[in-house]
Specification:
3 strands; rod-shaped; alpha+beta; 44% helix; 19% strand
Length: 160
């Protein structure tokens, strides 16, 4: 029975019929689907890139705050160089050090470090606090340009 069905002459005509039906109304379907899907795929891809840059920028300012406090804890009021000169870190020298760390600023935002001594002095056992603020400018498709304000704080105790 199956052999008789396969040898049916009508089945040999199916590819020809399918070709005719396809040529009548579906010739531009793929082009329309691509035209509708491509902008959405591109927008999603650029959004993922911007979100990745925002996460990188937050990691950058967090590490900058930690590096600033590390710089300050080893340069307290009792810090001296080998020749006996003072190497005490001030708030402005900490801010300058954080600003000159050289991390790649891929987001092209503005980083603002602010170092303070919450206990009021730079003696060993006192705290140093570094707050790094960052304005991350984003540029997403179909949204107006703007910026996300991020901040990271690091607090450590001065050891020398």
């Amino acid at each position: 029975m199956l052999a008789r069905f396969i040898s049916c002459p009508g089945l040999r005509m199916l590819p020809t019929i399918a070709r005719r039906l396809r040529s009548r109304g579906e010739s531009g379907q793929a082009m329309v689907e691509v035209a509708l899907a491509l902008p959405m795929i591109a927008a999603f891809s650029f959004a993922v890139i911007e979100i990745s840059l925002a996460f990188y920028s937050y990691c950058m300012i967090s590490e900058s705050a930690r590096e600033g406090t590390r710089y300050a804890i080893v340069r307290g009021a009792t810090c001296t160089t080998g020749s006996g000169a003072s190497c005490t870190a001030t708030a402005s020298s900490i801010n300058t050090e954080v600003g000159n760390l050289g991390w790649p600023n891929l987001g092209n935002g503005t980083m603002t470090p602010n170092a303070t001594y919450p206990d009021g002095n730079e003696n060993p056992g006192s705290r140093v606090q570094v707050v790094v603020s960052y304005a991350f400018p984003y540029n997403l498709p179909f949204l107006p340009k703007g910026s996300i304000h991020m901040s990271s704080t690091s607090v450590m105790y001065i050891v020398q």
